[in-house]
TrEMBL record:
Upper taxonomic lineage: Bacteria, Bacillati, Actinomycetota, Actinomycetes, Pseudonocardiales
Classification via InterPro entries: ArAA_b-elim_lyase/Thr_aldolase, Beta-eliminating_lyase, PyrdxlP-dep_Trfase, PyrdxlP-dep_Trfase_major, PyrdxlP-dep_Trfase_small
Residues of the Aromatic amino acid beta-eliminating lyase/threonine aldolase domain: 48-423
NCBIfam families listed in its UniProt record: PRK13238.1 (NF009709)
Keyword Lyase: yes
Name this protein carries in UniProt: Tyrosine phenol-lyase
UniProt entry tagged with the keyword Disulfide bond: no
Originating organism: Pseudonocardia eucalypti
Record family assignment: Belongs to the beta-eliminating lyase family.
Record keywords, A-Z: Lyase, Pyridoxal phosphate
Cofactor list: pyridoxal 5'-phosphate
Length: 464
């Protein structure tokens, strides 16, 4: 039974009109976009659940903070406020600002990864994997098996399997592993959290072998909330305290502030090692800008600092995760196959179960999200074989066990009626799914992160 909709801990002060389109208009738009929702224009989308990154609504306090942004090229006071805020809430003493999270990944990868290195992690994320592979690294997925099972209702599907981790270390040697790259939450598994107990076990293994642990902290606040709700002994702790506990078990973090921190742009790399920080600052001035702004305006750093303070408030994170659960449970009640348990930032549809008649090489998830847009005007994103890319050696498609469609909910942006409309549209498509008799094939395939700019055509001439 669907959960009660959470009361939003805010009221609306400004509104933005959204487009309302017909199915015929959406069919034309889908054709122009090559059946890739990434290539749709925003004014062709009614409810946009493509991502929760940079699409959040900022608060009045964030907008006010932007007015005192210090735009000094060197030594901006806004940088020092951000540095202090990150140190207080995340615990990293060395801060390198970047224009967004993948820039931090790029700088960290260039500092630490060399050809022949092996990097274990709890499932890949596309941009992270690209950066480590472009620097010659080889990724090893050491997440628990249940993470690859959509129906497995396990509270911490983001956990690392210690046996898998030990096996990788034994096979390649600790000297060839520059870091463990740990995600909290795990996006590609359905927004699933890692437990504090498991992260502590990873830390112990890392310490034994002298390997640093790097955290993808973009949604670590959501992970902290799940720990509070699901992990024994954590219920009476604050989200801020748990977040700091997570970070204290790591040596550094990459951060896209466009997620938990409510910002529209920005990110950072936080580390403990002064020598690593100095190397990173040498690269940030090459790729991003001066090390005290790193590709961001002072006003953006002010907005992020305020957003960090707001992100750990219990009422904010409770309502945020509650919205996602509300949508997910409405779909589950209607029989739509959804990854369980519901994740922190998005509802993930099990495209393989919804379209079992579509072969993997016709990309069921890409097919499904195109069809959902056509029927409902809702934009999501594929998280399956298209996102996984091709094997760097054989050129064959990667076919991950999970073939998913992600419906990511921006923070403080949509209301209950919007989510009810999304649910109705997805359920309508689910009831029409037998009309989808063929999938999609590439007509243009970029070599890197192909899901952003690829173009497709229906194998059978039309989707629906």
């Amino acid at each position: 039974m669907a959960r009660e909709y959470p009361v939003e801990p805010y009221r609306i002060k400004a509104v933005e009109p959204i487009p309302v389109t017909t199915r015929a208009q959406r069919t034309q738009a889908l054709g122009r976009a090559g059946y890739n929702t990434c290539l749709l224009r925003a004014d062709e989308v009614t409810i946009d659940l493509f991502t929760d990154s940079g699409t959040n609504a900022m608060s009045d306090r964030q907008w006010a903070a932007m007015m005192v942004g210090d735009e000094a090229y060197c030594g901006s006071s806004s940088f020092y406020r951000l540095e202090d805020t990150v140190a207080r809430y995340y615990g990293y003493p060395e801060l390198i600002p970047t224009h967004q999270g993948r820039a931090a990944e790029n700088i960290l990868a260039q500092c630490l990864i060399r050809p022949g290195h092996h990097i274990p992690g709890n499932m890949y994320f596309p941009s992270t994997r690209v950066h480590l592979e472009r620097n010659g690294g080889i990724f090893h997925d050491v997440i628990i098996d249940e993470a690859h099972q959509p129906d497995a209702d396990v509270p911490f599907k983001g956990n690392v399997d210690p046996d898998k981790l030990h096996k990788v270390i034994a096979e390649v040697g600790a000297d060839n592993i520059p870091l463990f790259w740990i995600h909290a939450t795990v996006n590609m598994a359905g927004g699933q959290p890692i437990s504090l107990g498991n992260l502590a076990e990873v830390r112990e293994i890392a310490d034994h072998h002298g390997i640093p642990v790097i955290l993808d902290a973009a949604r670590a606040v959501e992970n902290a909330w799940f720990i509070k709700c699901r992990e024994p002994g954590q219920a009476d702790r604050t989200v801020a305290d748990i977040l700091r506990n997570i970070c204290d078990l790591t040596d550094g973090a990459t951060m896209s502030a466009k997620k938990d921190s409510f910002a529209n742009i920005g990110g950072w790399l936080g580390v403990r090692d002064p020598s690593l920080a100095e190397a990173a600052r040498g690269l940030v001035v090459v790729y991003e800008g001066m090390h005290t702004y790193g590709g961001m305006a002072g006003r953006d750093m002010e907005a992020i600092a305020t957003g960090i303070e707001e992100s750990v408030r219990e009422e904010n994170i409770s309502a945020r995760v509650g919205q996602v659960e509300y949508l997910g449970e409405k779909l589950l009640d209607a029989g739509v196959p959804v990854v369980r348990p519901i994740g922190g930032h998005a509802v993930f549809l099990d495209a393989g179960a919804i379209l079992p008649n579509i072969p993997r090489d016709q990309f069921p998830a890409q097919t499904l999200i195109a069809a959902i847009y056509q029927v409902a005007g809702v934009r999501g994103v594929e998280r399956g074989a298209v996102s996984a890319g091709r094997d760097a050696v054989t050129g064959e498609n990667h076919y991950p066990e999970l073939e998913l469609v992600r419906l990511a909910i921006p923070r403080r942006t949509y209301t209950q009626s919007h989510l009810d409309a999304v649910a109705a549209g997805v359920i309508d498509l689910y009831n029409e799914r037998h009309h989808i008799t063929g999938g999609l094939r590439f007509v243009h395939e970029p070599p890197t992160m192909r899901f952003f700019q690829a173009r497709f055509e229906p194998v059978n001439g039309a989707l629906l």
